[in-house]
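Pilot study result, target chain (500 residues):
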Amino acid sequence: MKKTAVFLILVMLLAGSVPTASAGTSAQAYLISSPAPLTAAQVAQLRLAGANVKYVYQHFGGAAVTISPKKVAKIRLLPFVTSVYEDTHAQLTVSEFASASYSTLPGTPWWLDLIDAEQNTTYDGSGVWVAVLDSGFFPNWRDYINESSILTQYATAFIGAGGNQNEKKWDNGSTPHGMTMSALISGYWLVDGLNEGGWGEGYLTGWPGTYWVPGIAPGAKIIPVKVCEPMDCKLSAVNAGIDYIIGIKLANPDQPIVISEGYGHSIFTPLDKAALDAAISAGVVVVADAGNGGDSGMWFPGAYEPVISVGAGGWDNQFHNFPDKTWWLEDVPENGVDEVHMHAISSRQLPGQYLDVVSTGRGLLLPFPCPPFTHMAAGNCSSYAIPGGAKSKPYQYNFVGGTTFSSATIAGIVALMLQKNPALNNSDATFGTIGDPSSWGRGFLERLLESAATPIPPGSVQIRRPNGSFITQCWELPECPLEATGHGWVFIDDALAAVP
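Predicted structure:
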């Protein structure tokens, strides 16, 4: 639509899998930070102090270890150790649920229409790699995603405390979240059936058939990196995944790479910051969701200024003709941000946090094989991961929402920008110190993206839910005063026009 307004070579983590003296049955998982990557002598000192060193990060200072809590104080006394803390976890930020031949999709998905995807006929993300750090894929991912879009030679998994790497586990997921994120970027097959999608009656497209739903950047290549199982994302695994992508970037310095992160946590540790700083300094562009915390504020890593953070909005007319399900293919009026509302769950910015932009994150129809009304953490979704599932079992697709999907949308838009100018990145960002958010600064690509965003004025609107009921969405008014929109809504044509 046209607007009226302006506007992670495989990194070999030093072989920490060789255990030394046992930390005892009470050993717990910890993360250790250091100013620079650990030397062999320093790793030896950690082991002498009682740590079972699981992994040593190669591109920033730190290690994942197990150790008896009684020995933590001894570790902290080592001169090269700057901090020791428990290996906590983040969580995936999903919220509401909702073949060779194929038919032409009878309309444009609203999320493509509302970001002006149809105005872009030149760029599709070709030449750009997007690393999706998430929950990995279901085994039957080829039912939904074109295999040529996935760089399977780089796909891998880092599982549980210590970030144990297993290259064969990336598509053995128990939740479809990472696969869904990737499908939004690359595009996907939709096999429409009478009971598909849940929420309403009839067919999703109006007629049974197999359709190709375009992605934000269908020419980009996806690197699936599993760091969550199923909803629990150990920070040791997350940081190992980032370290892995840094290694790929350093081995391919001219290759534009985007990291798309769909998880968040309320703490920001020195090791987390070191991993992000190393990735961004290497030229990897990191995009993360703002979080689904509403007025409780943003989650990290999104709240960290050198990371491009994304909030979630939607189309005012979503589910408007319930129980009919074809609304998602209707034309979005050409009214700029007049048709945009802010999702109530999208995290608002609190002091010391940085919300950058917003994009589509409510009521997106995507491959999310799971029974309707079932949260994926319940573990029910894995039974849907069967060969041919898209053709033999209903509810392979659901209307989903949350800032995780808006961040994937922006990761796709960044891929388009990087195709136009592969030299763009945020390596000039100011990283500052962890305890002083005012010392953090954004990089060049982020500044471009923000400058191209269309501001969203304060507002309130009643939106229909997938079940037909209504809910009020409100942002930046006296009754809902917190900053929700950052620099505004991103339209693809504006973002591309801002690229030098």
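One observation from the pilot: The domain at 91-497 is CATH 3.40.50.200 (Rossmann fold). A full batch analysis is planned for the follow-on phase.
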